[in-house]
Amino acid sequence: MYKVLVSDPISDLGIQQLVEANDIIVDKNPGLTEDELVAIIGDYDALLVRSQTRVTAKIMEAGKKLKVVGRAGVGVDNIDLGAATERGIIVINAPDGNTITTCEHTFAMMMAVARHIPQAYMKTVGGTWDRKSFVGVELRNKTLGVLGMGRIGSEVAKRAKAFGMNIMGYDPFMTEERAEKIGIKLASVDDIVRAADFMTVHTPLTPETRHMIGKAQFEVMKPGMRIVNCARGGIIDEIALVEAIDQGIVAGAAFDVFEVEPPAEDHPFLKHPKIIVTPHLGASTIEAQENVAIDVSEQVLHILRNEPFMNAVNMPPIPANLQSKLQPYFTLGEKLGSFIAQSTEGAVQEIIVSYSGELAEVDTQPLTRYIVRGVLSHHLGQEQVNVVNSMHLAKLRDVNIVIQKSHASKDFTNLVTVALRTKKEEHIVAGTLLTGYGPRIVQIDKYPVDVTPEGNLILISHNDKPGIIGRVGTLLGNNDVNIATMQVGRQLEGGSAIMVLRVDKGTPKEVLLQLTSMPELNTAKEIILP
Ligand SMILES: NC(=O)C1=CN([C@@H]2O[C@H](COP(=O)(O)OP(=O)(O)OC[C@H]3O[C@@H](n4cnc5c(N)ncnc54)[C@H](O)[C@@H]3O)[C@@H](O)[C@H]2O)C=CC1
Ligand SMILES: O=C(O)C(=O)COP(=O)(O)O
């Protein structure tokens, strides 16, 4: 049974698949303090949050069983990603489900600030019929500057065009071709600040975007600009904005997000007649909340059940076409890593991975993570290492990882070769996927073999002498170790050779010792591949 803690208000309908899964127990417990979470998180395999819960290093440290933190939404600035990666906790988000909702809120805010709707409402319900204070401006023929042309920014631009606005967009990943395709003008922040009538920000909050609109930008800003922030508090310098409004540079602002949430009672935005605010409502629609909760629940289920998953924030994304190419190799890669770690003695210094054939043509980084996981989990424990932290843990331990690629592969469409160098020795294992047969180990050191990488194996290195196979069989039989299959690899008759035996159960240590004390037999190692 896996236990999932939901610590923010998340759509019941959205998490239904978790609640109904018969291998999952879901506890809903929103509004806990950090200490309260620390006290209970040790029982849970997964934590589901929105933006309220701050998932700190302290909480993750206490979450000894925690495999995944799922964010039902986009921004993960409330989650300590570094701490999660160090501990191998996968952080996933639900990046698509609230795009339209947040875009629509941005539009609502832009129109509200253009027409003074909240201020006019307050006066009207207060009993004053005041029409002259609230003369607004049209959006038509105005220039809208969009900073951050990702999912939400692009949707905002699309709708703004329908309102007859001219759009200037800035995004480091935006090309001229794409800008042209969606009918906007690619511009710099400086161009936008100087030319736009409205400006809306849709970037994440990063060291680079913090205060990207500050004093310097307000000084050169087109007078009369109206500014919307439905992304993250801190992208626009709040104090500098209030000054710019008071100096008559900015005509009005609409903010859904704040540098500190909730803002302090005396926050200058809260009483300002030209600033309208909402309490981080961008994603708060029934539809979006269902969408993000469904998406995040689905991925959490996959992660807990050890199935392929998407939207991990603390590991590089794998594009869908690459995922389908690499996916079949993940298990093989991890097994090769595990095999080589179990067959090589000494402290790991270098892992040399060679990809040949079609694999040499694609980005194999995700596969390398599985291989490194296989190697390290033999030493650090299966529970400690996963594909999120495997490279990080290797780096921490000064393990050098070398990747080689060769387009030619003599005998196989694809071949993955893993060499492990330790302080003591170096060994090699190579594997491939055989169509219709699945993963195979096809080479161990210099010997060609054909071994299915699973179950309990005994790897023996010996000198190729008549009778040795029989003596090994007799010794194992006498010790009640049943041999299921056997493979022998040698290069020259009478030379050095290896044997790979698959046995039905674990081989006791003393039996391995008896094997190694046989004449002509050099080493005998047990290798267990799940
Ligand atoms: N108010 C709310 O309730 C909600 C807020 N958000 C926030 O909205 C923001 C945008 O979300 P999405 O569009 O889904 O994200 P996204 O990742 O699709 O787009 C963000 C874009 O910002 C761009 N960017 C990064 N650094 C930049 C820089 N220095 N200058 C200009 N552009 C830069 C990126 O290249 C990317 O295209 C995020 O901060 C997210 O957390 C999202 C949903 C709801
Ligand atoms: O998805 C995001 O980035 C949001 O800011 C939405 O936050 P929320 O889930 O409404 O607390």
Automatic annotation (TrEMBL):
InterPro entries the record matches: ACT-like_dom_sf, ACT_dom, ASB_dom_sf, D-2-hydroxyacid_DH, D-isomer_2_OHA_DH_cat_dom, D-isomer_DH_CS, D-isomer_DH_CS1, D-isomer_DH_NAD-bd
Residues forming the ACT domain are 457-530
EC nos? 1.1.1.95
Q: Which PROSITE patterns match?
A: ACT (PS51671), D_2_HYDROXYACID_DH_1 (PS00065), D_2_HYDROXYACID_DH_3 (PS00671)
**Which top EC class applies here?**
oxidoreductase
Query: What SUPFAM superfamilies does this protein map onto?
Result: ACT-like (SSF55021), Formate/glycerate dehydrogenase catalytic domain-like (SSF52283), NAD(P)-binding Rossmann-fold domains (SSF51735), Serine metabolism enzymes domain (SSF143548)
* Domain of life where this protein originates: Bacteria
* Catalysed reactions, semicolon-separated: (R)-2-hydroxyglutarate + NAD(+) = 2-oxoglutarate + NADH + H(+); (2R)-3-phosphoglycerate + NAD(+) = 3-phosphooxypyruvate + NADH + H(+)
Cited NCBIfam families: PGDH (TIGR01327)
The family assignment reads: Belongs to the D-isomer specific 2-hydroxyacid dehydrogenase family.
Q: State the protein's purpose.
A: Catalyzes the reversible oxidation of 3-phospho-D-glycerate to 3-phosphonooxypyruvate, the first step of the phosphorylated L-serine biosynthesis pathway. Also catalyzes the reversible oxidation of 2-hydroxyglutarate to 2-oxoglutarate.
Task: Report the protein name in the record.
Answer: D-3-phosphoglycerate dehydrogenase
* UniProt source species: Paenibacillus pinisoli
Q: Taxonomic classification, please?
A: Bacteria, Bacillati, Bacillota, Bacilli, Bacillales
